[in-house]
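Feature request, filed as a ticket because there's no other form

It would be nice if the structure record came with a short human-readable summary line next to the tokens. Right now we just get the raw output. Example of a typical job, pasted below so the devs can see what we mean:
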Amino acid sequence: MTPTFPDITIGTDRLVLRPFEEGDVPALAEMMNDELVTAWTSVPHPYTREDAADWITRAAPAERAEGRGVVFAVTEFLTQRLVGSVHLRNTNWRCRSTEIGYVTAPWARGEGYASEAVRAVARWLFLRQGFERLELRTAAGNTASQQVAQKTGCINEGVLRNAWIARTRTEDGGWADIRTDLIVWSLLPEDLDDLDEDADRRDRAALADWN
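Raw output as currently delivered:
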């Protein structure tokens, strides 16, 4: 039987990471139609409410049920507003390794939410799920995603040449596919040891409260 991640909620000082709900459809559709999301991900464009509903009710639950990963909606603790998503995917249960991807809503950028969410998921993976490796891949031109990797403590392992297809705006306002390199990052349990001890205690307390 294929292992699966538990259906849980994770909390931090400012965020709640929880399963997506049907009420998230409008906010998810709006977030995924942002130009930066379109440029650096492979989601459909335009991203309709039907796409959002299918992701929330079918595709995301299947990721967990079939052992491939788990999807979290990232919301503000105080307002409950959707500010992003975190997706664990391509999970190798034998190696205890998985890949992480994330999206931040345009209205929530610049607040450090992505790095906070990634760190919370990493701690949960390492402390509670016994994982030994978290991998992240960022397109060569996606500097915002690379900054998240650096802030989280990820180590740059190298470049996969010509390994991704991004999108760029054309002169007529449409989109065109372009090939680009991927930068591979990794985070191991020992890479978190140098983080601030107070932050470590807060994260552990949050995991205990929300798990």
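Something like this underneath would help us a lot:
The two ends are 24 Å apart (CA to CA).
The first strand starts at residue 10 and ends at 11.
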